[in-house]
Amino acid sequence: MTNVAMNPAKKFQQIYRSDRHIWRLIIMILLWLTFMAITRFQRFYTLLNFQTMAAQFPEFGLMSLGVMICMITGGIDLSVVGVANLTSILMAYLLINLTTATSALPGFAIPLVFFLAILLGATFGLFNGLLISKFHIPPILATMGSGELFTGICLALTNGNAVSRFSRTYANTINNRIFDLIPVQLIIFIIMAFLIWFLLSKTVFGTKLYLLGTSEKAAKFSGLNNTVLLLKTYMLSSICAALGGMIMLANYNSARADYGTVYTLQCVLIVVLGGVNPIGGKGKISGVLLAIVLLRLLETGLNRFPNISSYYISLIWGSVLILVMVLNYFTEHKRTVSFKKSSIARRSK
Amino acid sequence: MKSTTALFIKKISKRNEPYVFLVLLGLCILIEIRSGQFFSSNNLVDIASALIVPGLFAIGAFLVIISGGIDVSFPALASLSVYATTKYLLDINYQGGVWAAILMALAIGALLGAFNGIFIGYFKLPALIVTLGSSSVFRGIMQGALNSRQLTIIPQGMRNWGTSSLFIARNPVSGLTSRMPVAFVVFLVVLLFVFFLMRYTMFGRSIYAIGGSELSAHSSGFNVVRTKIIMYTMVGMIASLAGVIRVCMMQQAHPTNMLGMEMNIIAGVVLGGTAITGGRGTLLGCMLGTLLIVIVENSLILLGIPTSWKSVFTGALIIIGTGVSSYQVILMNRIKKKNNPNKEAA
After folding, report:
1. N- to C-terminal Cα separation, chain A
2. Which helix (H) or strand (E) holds A123?
């Protein structure tokens, strides 16, 4: 009965069973790292390689965090890329105006653009949230429409051209490495991830979100203000997306309406792979973080094999997603006796 | 007599199709006033031929949405099956008619559709996730394993079929001519077939039943798993057919230019009054919605609006369209509540 009496194998089994999904992701990452160590040790395990990866993933990582919060409430945010691009284009115009004749930026410029980006993100999120909570448009449609609208505004503003020619200082600052070791992008990402982790697991707001995702009706009858909750959720999601846009602006040193169009579905993919239930109410940030890391490692690792087409990554990515879902199906199947009935009841909710 | 008309108006005002139709009509008249070119014969034929591929995709998306799922994989599915078909026919230097291409693409499409169907139907995984994953897989197979690149030459049979026309419309004013492709007949046949299927067969009704409530459908004796697998197989075939038609009409096979169409197609279907939660919607509404999207995409230029504004209009259309229909539901519930508060409380 006691934990002390358990043999190590059983103890491990217990730890594994406590959160199968997270452990499965960790095992996959470890397997891949081992595989890379055996085949391409020298070209993969370098400091520079890991620094590059850490600078690359925050842009879609931030967007995935946004999608995750929405999915926990049972919604989805398909407008993240639109929000990111619109923010980065508007901020790029501002930076052009701020750039002095000697192509430098005044000291207050970078904090200012970040502050404004957060404000813009909050505004776009408020728009999404109003559509969803006040007009009761299903989230998938509301954010699909607003995403299209934001992208459209980007196209109309820029005519589809890239906005650049602002001071390089911005890109240099964001691409900097603190102590020559940690990329700034990673720090922004870690701050946001920490904030969201704190909100989800340490505050009442987080608990309310999970309740809202589990059952909207129950949340309403428990006296929660669903409208305000949804507004906050979508604002937070769009702020994440706007910050992702600011990192894209630095990584490309320009802004364009069609940057990162593949990220929309990729973010959903990451979030689901991270163990967030698309019906809502379930999911942890740790799973999503692992899924982001797994994606980056897979993609970068595959690039170390020049004779394998990089297009195989989408094949692997899709198969991993479906595989994980099928594995979940089998573990659930074992656990519930009358699976068929319960699963149909669950899905027809 | 008067009461029946009133009843009819009352009944019809609760549906989405009349509103979409009115918006469509208003837009057409606006374009006609601004440019005088909209109702010219060649423009109408152009729009009809531009409707073929999105229309076929929309029929597939409609079936899936009615069943309570959502499919984002159909562009990747169509691209893969039509690319594989074209490549194979080119490799064996095939000289025959278009039938081989269509049959082969249908077979591949059925296979890929069944792949979706098995995961969604048998394993009961959420449709959005399965189709996201499978669209990734299809794209990976096409670009990685088949090493796809743009094929500028397509087999003779497909080329001839793509250029053959039912009739040619000629604009007496501008002298421009437009062809009505033979593929339009295929589109009409599929449309009629699905209309009949959804309306008069047990299979079609079971799709509606599953979308309404899967549990109830199961309890009332519908075979949910089988229906879903057959339906996704069918959707795969319809999407592949659209892919073949597109390649034939464009006279070249471009592996990636169909990708990214899914959002606009789904938007069109939903705009026509199909409930995204499933179980409700008509094929007529779906076609009207798709037509609206196609006209917005193709005819803004006639209004003197630069094409870079296209997405602004589609986005606004989706938000307003879905907003109005969602708001109607709220209003209706409020009126119901006001009329019989006791019933609501019980």
Report:
1. 38
2. helix A109-133
Task: Assign A214 to helix, strand or coil.
Answer: helix
Residue B237 included in any domain: yes
Residue B275 corresponds to which tokens in the numbers above?
Answer: 């409930």
Tell me the shortest Cα–Cα distance from B34 to chain A, in angstroms.
21
What the block records as the tokens of A38 is 């055996």
CATH label of the domain that carries residue A196: 1.10.3470
User: How many domains does chain A divide into?
Assistant: 1
Number of domains in chain B: 1
Answer yes or no: is A17 within a domain.
no
The whole-angstrom separation of Cα A197 and Cα B72 is: 30
In a domain, A16, yes or no: no
Among all chains, which residue has been given the structure tokens 């404000």? A119
pLDDT value for A122: 93
The per-residue pLDDT of chain A, averaged, comes to 82
For chain B, how far is it from start to end, CA to CA, in angstroms? 37
| Closest chain A residue by Cα to residue B145 | A312
* Chain centroid to CA B72: 12
In a domain, B113, yes or no: yes
Tokens 């979940």 locate to: A328
Task: Report the residue of chain A nearest B331, measured CA to CA.
Answer: A135
Range of the domain at A171: 49-302+311-328
Mutate to test the interface with B, among A133, A159, A265 (most CBs of B within 10 A): A265
Does A261 reside within a domain? yes
Q: How far does B237 lie from chain A, in Å, by closest CA?
A: 21
Residue A293's SS3 state is helix
Is residue B235 within 8 Å of B121, Cβ to Cβ? no
Contacts of A138 in chain B (CB under 8 A): 276-277, 322, 326
Interchain contact A226–B (C-beta under 8 A): no
**pLDDT tens digits, residue range B66-104?**
998 888 889 999 999 999 998 888 888 877 778 888 999
Residue A339 has pLDDT above 50, yes or no: no
Distances in whole angstroms, Cα of residue A202 to Cα of each of A72, A188, A194, A198, A282: 16, 21, 11, 5, 16
Q: Tell me if B281 is assigned to some domain.
A: yes
pTM confidence score: 0.81
CATH number of the domain where residue B92 is located: 1.10.3470
Give domain status of residue A294, yes or no. yes
The alpha carbon torsion through A204, A209, A210, A211 (nearest 10 deg) reads: 90
- The range of the structural domain enclosing residue B216 comes to 15-345
Summarised one tens digit per residue, pLDDT across range B301-319 is 777 777 778 788 888 888 8
> Which B-chain residues 62-121 have CB contacts (< 8 A) with chain A?
68, 70, 72, 119
Counting as low any pLDDT under 70, the low residues of chain B are 1-3, 10-14, 340-346
Contacts for B33 with CB less than 8 Å, ≥ 6 apart: none
Q: Is B7 contained in some domain?
A: no
d(CA B324, CA B328): 6
The dihedral sign for the CA sequence B91, B93, B97, B100: negative
